[in-house]
């Protein structure tokens, strides 16, 4: 049940998160061009809703950086973390596929390759390897450190999910403008792979040269968060 919960939860996360991106950037939607604040609000609410639903049957990590951080902390085995990560990637692909199916008429109208890719995966506003990598490290460090703190305070599950959702909004508004803040390898890699596979008109390149940053940046950030948490505790 844990594995199914991680799969469904990550699918819901990406369905709602990439759904708001698609609504904002694709042409002729009702919420077209409504802006970055709408995207960050949508992603924060997506995290809260996905964690609330998947939390019924799973730890609700929804993120390989979180699963690997809990493995380093000793709460789960490394094998379990790797299984969760694979399932999260598959769930992210399903969520992104559902976004594509719903918005397909709008994809057919789109001709901006960066916008099309942006509805699947993240990308830098200004390409700079150090800055982009640091953005993903810092955003995920704050995310995981706060999740660990929530566990320490033993917050009620419903309140905890709201808190994490608000945290994602805060990270997006404060730190997300440089890269689109993946802060989750599954959220970026799974949909990016789907973008490469789907027959989307004028989709362009999947930007695999950048793809390692939203994979390894969040993992480094999550592991650093555990090290800082252990020092504080």
From TrEMBL:
Statement: the UniProt record of this protein carries the keyword Transmembrane: yes
GO molecular function, one term: glycerol channel activity
Cellular localization per UniProt: Membrane
A matching Pfam family: MIP
Transmembrane segments: 7-27, 33-60, 81-103, 133-153, 160-183, 212-232
GO cellular component: plasma membrane
UniProt main location, coarse: membrane
Record membrane topology: Multi-pass membrane protein
Signal peptide: none
PROSITE patterns: MIP (PS00221)
Keyword entries, A-Z: Membrane, Transmembrane, Transmembrane helix, Transport
SUPFAM superfamilies xref list: Aquaporin-like
Family (UniProt): Belongs to the MIP/aquaporin (TC 1.A.8) family.
Protein's UniProt name: Aquaporin
Organism of origin: Streptococcus pluranimalium
